[in-house]
């Protein structure tokens, strides 16, 4: 596997199986504010909606891919605000590809795309205080911790802090 060969691509209907596994894995619901499983019908609608322009729907999910491996994970832009030139970033790397530089390369590709094609000035990420791997990933791509949201999320029967990271592109 060569990290330099990674690219971002649009979601395709053939991605439904891995998308179902990811979105319905309760271990990650605490990070995505999900409270119930997604049906295949809903996720197929989500894939179909990805054909619409980010300026209209304010979000876009990209598949992290290479010519040899179709899916390493996903990276998202959400809460896209074209007037203010900002968007949130979310990323999920399939477990067997973690720790190999895939996340860093995918974030770098997304940063370049956001600046060059979407004219975004500020990318932000909301990261749970205990998610050390995600914090390290975003810091390695130049994101800076700019805030702490105390007792922001409730899971595992208690409240948890969340950090706000930002990267200014211009």
Describe the model.
- With 170 residues, the protein is of the alpha+beta class.
- Helices cover 31% and strands 34% of the residues.
- The protein is built from 6 helices and 7 strands.
- The chain has helices at residues 16-23, 29-32, 40-49, 54-57, 102-118, 132-140, and strands at 7-10, 60-65, 73-81, 86-93, 122-128, 144-155, 158-168.
- The protein has a 7-stranded mixed β-sheet with strand order 1-2-3-4-5-7-6.
- The longest helix is centred in the middle third of the chain and has 17 residues, at 102-118.
- The model has no long low-confidence stretch (mean pLDDT 93).
Quick recap of the structure?
With 170 residues, this protein is of the alpha+beta class. The chain is built from six helices and seven strands. The protein has a seven-stranded mixed beta sheet with strand order 1-2-3-4-5-7-6.
Which helices and strands appear, and what pairs or packs with what?
Elements: E1 7-10, H1 16-23, H2 29-32, H3 40-49, H4 54-57, E2 60-65, E3 73-81, E4 86-93, H5 102-118, E5 122-128, H6 132-140, E6 144-155, E7 158-168
Helicity level: 25-40%
Tertiary shape: globular
- Main sheet: strand order: 1-2-3-4-5-7-6
Any idea what the radius of gyration is?
16 Å
Strand content: 25-35%
Alpha-carbon distance between the two ends: 32 Å
The number of distinct β-strands equals 7
Q: Spell the H/E element sequence.
A: EHHHHEEEHEHEE
| Main sheet attributes: strand count, strand direction, barrel closure | 7 strands, mixed
Helix and strand composition category = alpha+beta
Low-confidence regions: none
Mean of all residue-level pLDDT scores: 93
Count of separate DSSP helical elements: 6
């Amino acid at each position: 596997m060569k990290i330099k060969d990674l690219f971002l691509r649009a979601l395709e209907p053939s991605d439904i199986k891995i998308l179902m596994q990811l979105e319905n894995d309760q271990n990650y619901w605490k990070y995505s504010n999900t409270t119930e499983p997604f049906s295949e019908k809903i996720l197929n609608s989500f894939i179909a909606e990805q054909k619409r322009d980010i300026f209209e729907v304010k979000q876009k999910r990209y598949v992290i891919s290479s010519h040899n491996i179709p899916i390493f994970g996903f990276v998202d832009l959400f809460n896209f605000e074209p007037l203010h030139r900002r968007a949130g970033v979310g990323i999920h790397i399939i477990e067997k590809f973690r720790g190999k530089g895939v996340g860093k390369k995918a974030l770098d590709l997304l940063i370049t795309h956001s600046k060059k094609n979407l004219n975004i000035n500020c990318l932000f990420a909301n990261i749970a205080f205990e998610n050390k791997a995600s914090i390290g990933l975003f810091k390695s791509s130049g994101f800076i911790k700019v805030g702490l949201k105390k007792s922001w999320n409730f899971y595992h029967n208690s409240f948890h802090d969340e950090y706000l990271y930002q990267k200014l592109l211009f």
